[in-house]
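User: I would dearly like some help making sense of a protein record. This is the protein in question:
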Amino acid sequence: MYAVFVSVGVFAFAYGYVNVALNKPSYQQYSVGIDRYDARNGVDGRKSDLSIVGGQCARAFRRQTATWWVNLTTIHSIHHITIYFMTENEPWGPSSFLTKYFLGFSVYVSNTTDRLQGTLCYKDDNFTVDTIPAVFTTTCPVLGQYVIYYNERLPGVTYPDGYSDNVGTYLCELEVYGCPATGCYGSNNTLPCPDVNCQYCHIETGTCQDCKPGYQGYRCELVTRVMVVTMSVDHVIMAAVLAGEDISVKKLT
């Protein structure tokens, strides 16, 4: 059974979560350089024509690596990510010449364009040309600003049977569902984070993941105390340890 997606205003919803990637800035490696294949086609909300010439998909030159990302412009609490692969509007599976280019793909969420500084949400090491779905969804309840699609065919590496010799993007839509603003959680995006000083909380449980500036602790219940001193930092830290204080120190310049 397929999920039901409803477009409302500038957002798209799935199971109550908002597609926060819709019409956000995007990039792809080895871009062809024409609008028909531009990276932004992967976040424009159009997915009725999944062909190479339909103008609704991102496509890049095939090389040893393929990278595509969307910049959500701010850190978001993410629930799940859905990818619509290019299918040429034809039967999917081993009869399609495209499936081999997606095998082995990865999805990352990061606060920068460097995927290795982020969280690996999914790495394909099981799909074959017979089993890879045309529409793929992975749950990844993390915080991040960039969602990155990556694949590779590196020299000297032996890949499973059915894998292509090189890779390209061939993405028709990548949707990132989560909270549209900071400090919310729940499938309807209306519940505020339970801890009043929490900036980001787990999108399903509400457990705080990052405190507002000036607060710390498991429930952000501790005020980060700032002391301005003229004595040496080493002496301040030693005094704080002896007093059992939790402080931050700012050095006068």
